[in-house]
Each structure stands twice: as C-alpha cells, then as structure tokens.
Design a protein that fits this description.
Distance between the termini: 5 Å
Mean pLDDT: 74
Number of helices: 3
Radius of gyration: 14 Å
Strand content: 15-25%
Helix content: 25-40%
Largest sheet: 3 strands, antiparallel
Number of strands: 5
Length: 102
C-alpha cells in the first residue's frame, strides 16, 4: 500500500469556504511546489525513503512550529500541505490534507 494525497491525485476535491467572504476557495496545489523547483515526485520519494529508513525529521520547521522533530516528520509523512486561495477576495489559507493508503 502507498500513502498518497487525495487532492494531488484527484481522488477527492477539497472544498473550504473563505473565512473572509464565504466564497469557495480554490486549491492551488502543494506548498512545496511554491518553495522549490517543480518536481511532482521528489518530495513523495524523499518522504517514502525517510519513512522506510525510520528518519522522520524531514518536515519544514516553519510549517510545523512547536512540534518536535519526530512529531513534525510524522505529520509531514501523514499530510500534504496545500495552498487555498479565494477567487473573490484573494485571501489565502494553508491546509494540511491527510494522506490516504491505496
């Protein structure tokens, strides 16, 4: 079995209302895609290798402030952080989407 993000893989569509104007926000993709050169498989490959090796400290500290390295890494392996943007007012929101086993 493999752990995948349902939003990235088209398994589920995530709909959340904007906190400012209540319009439905649009999923603009993974946060990692904004911080690094585009490569859709690199982060999943790295997370999978870290999981198999027992190394869980691969999460970005800025994304998971206040958590220990092990907690941060486990959460990064279990979730996929996405950026949502409101088409009406332009506000944005970050959401950690739980990965699913398929």
């Amino acid at each position: 079995m493999e752990s995948v993000c349902p939003a990235c893989n088209g398994i589920a569509r995530i709909s959340i209302p904007c906190r400012r104007c209540s319009a439905l926000m649009e999923d603009r993709g993974r946060l990692e895609d904004y911080a690094q050169p585009y490569s859709p498989y690199d982060i999943d490959d790295e997370l999978g290798e870290a999981s198999r090796a027992g190394q869980y400290d691969v999460a970005s500290p800025s994304m998971l402030q206040g958590a220990s390295a092990n907690e941060s890494g486990r959460r990064a392996l279990d979730t996929c952080a996405h950026l949502f943007v409101c088409p009406q007012c332009g506000s944005d929101r970050r959401l950690s989407i739980p990965r699913r086993f398929i």
